[in-house]
């Protein structure tokens, strides 16, 4: 985070950093004081824009067109950092001659299958290895299981050593394909699609490129303004491509900074409570892809592949040893047979729809409030009302615990308290001050928290709850002879208990299990390189191995920042191996020298024959830049001395992703699932591979080329305020925060206010196919109507913090959204949708349902009507 | 008595009887880096246990606090306005007064062409004046000048008479409805006495609020203004830093990006005792002898 | 308690005003005993726990001051190289978050079809939840699919966690649920 101060330019897009990460923003202010230029690109002028040198208003949902324009500017003006691009990216790789671009196919890539709405990825592959591409069926399974998330710690697999053209002239090399793909993303097109005046767009391009290269670096900052889209992963890919072309990755003051939104949301991904992952991004076993331990491991490491992922068997075996201890043996494949299997999409949104359908009996909510915080609030609440039982663990009384008596559906008559069967347990939780353990912050850094006091009353930690729930379950099943209970019986669950009450599991013991042991000596492991595939090591999360290096809780280190260099490697511990900037080998040139004195970070020390620098080198310490792998080398030995991106299968930063993404090898502008606009670039309107749930209770507002999009003529977006936190459970309960933002509101431009007769501080209500909610109106010039394709497009904005419980209450913005997801990671599109807004309060009671039904009728949205997925010209009747 | 009541005064603490006073401490609030997060408001309330101030959506941009009061000792003002390049032209067209509560939009200008935007934010606070009107009119000794040169209300002395409220040229000090006593920023007298930073300045994410020795803050502020001018931010100016102003300079002063009125600050504040000085010369001696008599009488009776 | 007259007189502001260095009675002479005795409550704390802010993912350092087993102040840790002692409004409100009397401290139970909460003993609640987990698992268990492929799971149980859970907690949650075959385990990280 503090490395932002080293940037010469900071582009913040898809993030309202000053409001959502105010303390992190101090480093932007610091950079600004040192002379850096700060640019904010956002649909709305925010407190971040207020501190930026330039604010660029952009249409919500058009970021790929904007960044694609930046790529086009770089390539058509040859502003790329050519030495970096040649050495560290896949620019010179030759792609299959079967590849066809969206430019040729009206918005689809080659290989599209309209039956499954997925791609056969063979033609996206490098020339000569088309067989390694993903098939339709694999792509379908990948989408169902959000397989894209597995690449958080490593790239997808491709064979090594393939034909290249270092002159970048071959028309089928990545560089030329990229250039053609973005050739149409001219400043004129950016203006038409995004509503950004050309001069303003070019100002960004010039600042970004002028502040990149040997001597200078630009940092790119994003948050969920990019992720929460039906093309979210591709938004981030576009940013990464710009940063690779300009040589900003792995360098001080550069990189792509993902600002995550919660104290340990990074930790919740690394040690996931996610359906499709196991700790360290190991995939949850899939019933057809991973029938055996060997297949599971091969699915991760792709035999013959180079890089650290080739040791997947060691990580996998050590993981199962951590779970099942002595019961995990070579004979039983380390207990792999006890693991449950996925068959498809078991994500949170699928679960909610299954709850509505009565398929799920019990639900645990652990510090989470989906009645307010998840898209389609009504579906969330109706789902919870159809459970047998619900356990809510939280600090305060939240909406998800009281839907049966206070939810909006009580007023509409959709839930009747006396007829709602759900049994609800509210279990008070311990706060962060009342338990010890680690959070992993946004830059992969673990920080240990000391416990200050015991929790009050019945409040307990999740650690306590799950340890004792597990203890009880194991006691009940101890005598069982059923095969299904064998895994529970074999589970290592003998954590020491400590504390005043004598029943709190020792979090440090759990962190040690996560770190892993050498089981022969009983010593804690220091790096994942020590892990073995023979059952002689354990480790609950291989990427966290080293957090207990030398037997010391490294996450608890607190050497004051002012007593170390700015990288502050002795404060907490970052995965992997305490590296603070990933891929920092790229901060040196291929020969191992810093690109410039000004941007020194990690370099080859020829005297000592090792890598040295400010940070832990993200490279084998003793492998010289001149190292070239011997013929036939695999795994780590196959990584060349100048392969800076060591976790990528080919050691390169990918400008073109031949595998690993479901929606295409290069980002392409698609309209959001709900848009008032026809896609100005392609017949294909929206992401053809997006994950949809076509059900009567999940309608989508019509978008062109369908008729009736005028019923929902405005674009809306939602996000956070500084003064509140997510669904409000930790802020609307506190007087000092509630008084700062006491009411739900909607921001509109003076022009929209005039068009709809909205008054400042008066009431308005906002309507989508899912709901109508009300809010106070703030008329502000911070929102501007944009001119898109000759049309005036109004955007409005709402915070999403409100609900029915707490000191300050109000309608929930998330009720407005339906459920449509990014295909790679199954994250919902909740940063953009279409709506109508009208003055005055919304109807109440059953009238509200009739009112929304009126909109559905006018929009032609019968229960079985769902938008077409493929609208490219071949199949498009609307054009 | 020198400039005890008006005009420049080197060290108000020494003037107030602290013979070995530490350096005068104060706040420099640099609004050019304020992100309007209101951490100052919350940190102040948490430390000083200041009551909440009501849950009212005011619609003054993002300001729902409204102003400094007995229950809000820091207040972040938000001003939405056209960019400075256009200000002159717009002034011609008749700019509205932007700083104080408006029933309409903050920063809205009738018939103004749409321009780039400026969103100004400023964390306001008690100025801890060199010549503090509140202190000078306080009849009970509840308000006093500390050894740090700051001005503090002592809640164990205050009887709620309210004279101080009209004595403050900034409209800062205020009576709390439930207990009737006067309350305002103490510059965290308890914290600074132990060598700690006041809660607001400690929390401030961007160092918009800086705490320190006033002399050093004034130097730092002058450098910051010069730097901003050099960077083309010619509208940067200091407010409350001038010992020759109507309150003898503020212990809490500001770097602003527009006229003080825009932020709701008085352009030319002066302490009521500026006029008192003239009167004092005539009446002062008489008043003092009356007090002296009272002391003797009271002491004698208590024996 | 007898206070000597001299002490009493000397403690009296007007006396100090007339005889001391503060003739206008606005400073040293006016300072009350309470004011003179003021000290920051962080200075008198029994202990300080080094912690981390529970709101966003910047990971600001916090110092939690404890006196008589009560948290009396939470503020930024100036040692942190990430936050340098600073906190945003939410982080600054951590003291309220932890000590508010609005916090729920009792287990509450809503019976099916009931119109209100009732209190429940913690141990009883744990036993009841254990019963329900095992019953849901039993009722929805899948050994294999129709083609005999191993599934080894239950789709009867769901979980959605917030991202203020500790790594150690997430680890135990995932471990226990995986071992009992519950796969529908999700987190804010998906949202």
Question: How are the SSEs ordered, and which strands pair?
Answer:
The complex is a heterotrimer of chains A (879), B (303) and C (191).
Chain A: E1 9-13, H1 17-20, H2 26-33, E2 37-42, H3 47-51, E3 54-57, H4 63-76, H5 82-88, E4 112-113, E5 118-119, H6 136-144, H7 174-182, H8 187-194, H9 198-210, E6 218-222, H10 224-227, H11 232-245, E7 256-258, H12 265-270, E8 277-278, E9 282-283, H13 293-301, H14 312-324, H15 348-356, E10 362-366, H16 370-373, H17 377-384, E11 389-394, H18 399-406, H19 408-412, E12 423-428, E13 437-440, E14 445-449, H20 462-477, H21 486-490, E15 497-498, E16 504-505, H22 507-515, E17 573-574, E18 602-605, E19 610-613, E20 691-692, E21 714-719, H23 735-738, E22 745-748, H24 750-756, E23 763-767, E24 772-779, E25 786-788, E26 791-793, E27 795-799, E28 820-821, E29 833-839, H25 846-858
Parallel strand pairs in A: 1-2, 1-6, 2-3, 6-7, 10-11, 11-12, 21-27, 22-24
Antiparallel strand pairs in A: 4-5, 8-9, 13-14, 14-17, 15-16, 18-19, 20-28, 21-29, 23-24, 23-29, 25-26
Helix pairs in contact in A: 4-8, 4-9, 4-11, 8-9, 15-17
Chain B: H1 12-15, E1 25-30, H2 39-48, E2 74-82, H3 87-93, E3 117-125, H4 133-137, E4 143-145, E5 151-153, H5 163-167, E6 174-175, E7 182-183, H6 189-193, H7 199-203, E8 209-213, H8 214-230, E9 237-239, E10 252-256, H9 273-301
Parallel strand pairs in B: 1-10
Antiparallel strand pairs in B: 1-8, 2-3, 4-5, 6-7, 9-10
Chain C: H1 5-10, H2 13-19, H3 33-37, E1 47-52, E2 61-67, E3 70-76, H4 89-92, H5 94-99, E4 108-110, E5 118-119, H6 122-140, E6 141-144, E7 150-161, H7 167-179, E8 182-187
């Amino acid at each position: 985070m503090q490395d932002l101060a080293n940037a010469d330019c900071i582009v913040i897009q898809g993030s309202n950093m000053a409001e959502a990460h105010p303390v992190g923003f101090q480093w932007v202010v610091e950079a600004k004081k040192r002379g850096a230029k700060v640019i904010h690109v956002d649909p709305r002028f925010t407190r971040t824009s207020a501190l930026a040198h330039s604010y660029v208003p952009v249409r919500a949902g058009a970021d790929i067109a904007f960044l694609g324009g930046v790529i086009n500017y770089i390539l058509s003006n040859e502003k790329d950092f050519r030495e970096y691009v040649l050495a560290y990216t896949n620019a010179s790789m030759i792609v299959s001659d079967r590849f066809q671009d969206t430019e040729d196919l009206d918005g689809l890539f080659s290989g599209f299958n309209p039956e499954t709405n997925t791609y056969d990825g063979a033609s996206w592959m490098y020339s000569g290895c088309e067989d390694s591409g993903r098939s339709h069926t694999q792509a379908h399974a990948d989408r169902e299981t959000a397989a894209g998330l597995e690449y958080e710690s490593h790239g997808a697999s491709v064979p090594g050593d393939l034909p290249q053209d270092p002159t970048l002239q071959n028309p089928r090399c990545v560089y030329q394909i990229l250039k053609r793909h973005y050739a149409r993303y001219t400043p004129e097109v950016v203006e038409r699609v995004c509503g950004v005046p050309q001069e303003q767009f070019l100002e960004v391009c010039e600042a970004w490129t002028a502040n990149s290269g040997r001597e200078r670096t630009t940092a790119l900052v994003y948050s969920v303004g990019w992720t929460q889209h039906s093309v979210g992963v591709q938004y981030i890919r576009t940013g990464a491509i710009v940063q690779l072309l300009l040589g900003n990755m792995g360098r001080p003051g550069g990189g792509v900074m993902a600002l995550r939104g919660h104290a340990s949301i990074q930790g919740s991904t690394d040690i996931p409570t996610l359906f499709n992952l196991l700790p360290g991004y190991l995939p949850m076993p899939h019933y057809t892809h991973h029938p055996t331990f060997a297949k599971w491991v091969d699915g991760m490491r792709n035999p013959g592949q180079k890089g650290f992922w080739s040791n997947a068997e060691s990580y996998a075996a050590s993981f199962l040893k951590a779970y099942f201890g002595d019961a995990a043996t070579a004979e039983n494949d380390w207990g792999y047979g006890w693991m449950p299997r996925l068959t498809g999409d078991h994500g949170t949104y699928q679960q909610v729809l299954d709850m509505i359908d009565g398929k799920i009996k019990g639900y645990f909510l652990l510090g989470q409030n989906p009645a307010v915080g998840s898209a389609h609030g009504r579906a969330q609440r109706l789902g919870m009302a159809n459970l047998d039982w619900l356990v809510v663990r939280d600090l305060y009384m939240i909406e998800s615990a009281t839907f049966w008596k206070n939810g909006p559906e009580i007023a509409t008559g959709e839930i009747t308290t006396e007829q709602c069967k759900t049994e609800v347990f509210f279990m008070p939780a311990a706060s962060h001050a009342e338990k010890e353990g680690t959070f992993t912050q946004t830059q992969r850094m673990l920080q240990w928290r000391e416990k200050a006091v015991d929790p009050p009353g019945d409040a307990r930690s999740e650690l306590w709850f799950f340890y004792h729930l597990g203890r009880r379950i194991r006691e009940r099943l101890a005598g069982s002879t059923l095969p299904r209970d064998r895994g529970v019986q074999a589970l290592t669950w003998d954590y020491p208990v400590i504390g005043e009450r004598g029943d709190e599991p020792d979090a440090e013991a759990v962190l040690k299990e996560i770190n892993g042991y050498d089981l022969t000596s009983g010593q804690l492991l220091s790096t994942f390189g020590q892990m073995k595939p023979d059952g002689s090591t354990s480790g609950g999360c291989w990427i966290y191995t080293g957090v207990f290096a030398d037997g010391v809780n490294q996450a608890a280190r607190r050497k004051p920042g002012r007593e170390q260099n700015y990288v502050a490697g002795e404060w907490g511990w970052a995965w992997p191996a305490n590296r603070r900037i990933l891929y920092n080998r790229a901060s040196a040139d291929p020969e191992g020298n810093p690109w410039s004195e000004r941007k020194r970070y990690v370099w080859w020390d020829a005297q000592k024959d090792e890598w040295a620098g400010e940070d832990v080198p993200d490279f084998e310490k003793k492998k010289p830049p001149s190292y070239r792998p011997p013929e036939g080398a695999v795994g780590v030995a196959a990584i060349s001395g100048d392969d800076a991106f060591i976790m990528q299968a080919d050691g390169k930063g990918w400008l073109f992703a031949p595998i690993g993404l479901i929606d295409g090898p290069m980002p392409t502008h698609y309209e959001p699932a709900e848009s008032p606009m026809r896609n100005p670039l392609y017949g294909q309107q929206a992401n053809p591979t997006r994950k949809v749930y076509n059900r009567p209770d999940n309608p989508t507002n019509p978008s062109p080329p369908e008729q009736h999009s005028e019923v929902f003529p405005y674009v809306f977006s939602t996000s956070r305020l500084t003064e509140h936190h997510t669904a409000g459970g930790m802020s609307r309960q506190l007087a000092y925060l509630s008084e700062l933002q006491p009411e739900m509101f909607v921001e509109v431009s003076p022009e929209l206010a005039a068009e709809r007769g909205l008054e400042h501080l008066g009431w308005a209500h906002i309507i989508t196919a899912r709901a109508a909610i009300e809010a106070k109106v703030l008329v502000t010039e911070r929102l501007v109507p944009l001119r898109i394709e000759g049309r005036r497009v109004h955007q409005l904005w709402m915070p999403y913090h409100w609900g029915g419980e707490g000191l300050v209450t109000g309608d929930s913005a998330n009720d407005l959204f339906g459920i449509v997801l990014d295909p790679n990671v199954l994250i919902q599109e909740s940063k953009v949708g279409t709506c109508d807004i009208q003055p005055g309060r919304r109807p109440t009671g059953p009238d509200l349902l009739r009112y929304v039904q009126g909109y559905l009728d006018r929009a032609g949205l019968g229960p079985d009507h769902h938008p077409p997925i493929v609208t490219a010209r071949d199949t498009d009747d609307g054009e | 008595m020198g400039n005890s009541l008006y005009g420049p005064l080197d060290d108000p603490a020494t003037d107030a009887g602290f013979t070995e006073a530490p350096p005068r401490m104060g706040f420099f609030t640099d609004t050019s880096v304020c992100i309007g997060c209101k951490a100052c408001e919350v940190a102040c309330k948490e430390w000083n246990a200041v009551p909440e101030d009501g849950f009212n959506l005011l619609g003054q941009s993002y300001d729902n606090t409204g102003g400094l009061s007995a229950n809000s000792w820091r207040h972040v003002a938000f001003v939405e306005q056209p960019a400075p390049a256009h200000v002159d032209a717009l002034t011609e067209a008749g700019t509205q007064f932007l700083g104080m509560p408006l029933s309409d939009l903050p920063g809205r200008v009738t018939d103004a062409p749409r321009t780039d935007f400026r969103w100004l934010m400023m964390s306001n606070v008690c100025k801890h004046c060199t010549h503090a009107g509140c202190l000078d009119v306080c009849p009970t000794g509840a308000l006093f000048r500390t050894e740090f040169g700051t001005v503090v209300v002592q809640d164990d002395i205050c009887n709620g008479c309210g004279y101080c409220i009209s004595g403050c040229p900034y409209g800062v000090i205020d009576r709390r409805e439930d207990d009737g006593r006067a309350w305002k920023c103490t510059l965290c007298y308890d914290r600074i006495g132990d060598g700690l930073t006041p809660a607001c300045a400690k929390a401030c994410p961007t160092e918009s609020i800086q705490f320190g020795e006033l002399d050093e803050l004034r130097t730092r502020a002058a450098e910051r203004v010069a730097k901003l001018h050099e960077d083309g931010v010619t509208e940067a100016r200091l407010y409350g830093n001038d010992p020759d102003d109507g309150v003898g300079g503020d212990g809490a002063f500001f770097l602003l990006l527009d006229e003080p009125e825009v932020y709701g600050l008085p352009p030319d504040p002066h302490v009521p005792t500026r006029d008192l000085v003239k009167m004092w010369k005539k009446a002062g001696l008489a008043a003092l002898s009356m007090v002296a008599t009272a002391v003797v009488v009271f002491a004698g009776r208590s024996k | 308690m007898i206070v000597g007259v001299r002490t009493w007189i000397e403690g009296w502001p007007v006396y100090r005003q007339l005889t001391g260095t503060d003739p206008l009675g606005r400073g040293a002479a006016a300072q009350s005993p309470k004011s003179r005795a003021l000290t920051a409550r962080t200075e008198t704390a029994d202990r300080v726990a080094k912690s981390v802010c529970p709101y966003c993912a910047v990971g600001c350092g916090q110092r939690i001051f404890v006196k008589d087993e009560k948290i009396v102040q939470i503020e930024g840790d100036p040692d942190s190289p990430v936050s340098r002692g600073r906190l945003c409004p939410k982080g600054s409100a951590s003291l309220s978050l932890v000590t508010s009397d609005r916090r729920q401290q009792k287990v509450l139970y809503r019976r099916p079809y009931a119109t209100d909460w009732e209190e429940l003993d913690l141990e009883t609640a744990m036993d009841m939840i254990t019963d329900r987990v095992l019953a849901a698992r039993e009722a929805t268990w899948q050994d294999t699919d129709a083609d005999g492929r191993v599934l080894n799971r239950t789709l009867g149980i769901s979980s959605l966690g917030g991202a203020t859970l500790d790594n150690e907690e997430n680890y135990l949650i995932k471990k226990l649920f995986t071992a009992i075959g519950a796969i529908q385990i999700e987190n804010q990280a998906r949202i």
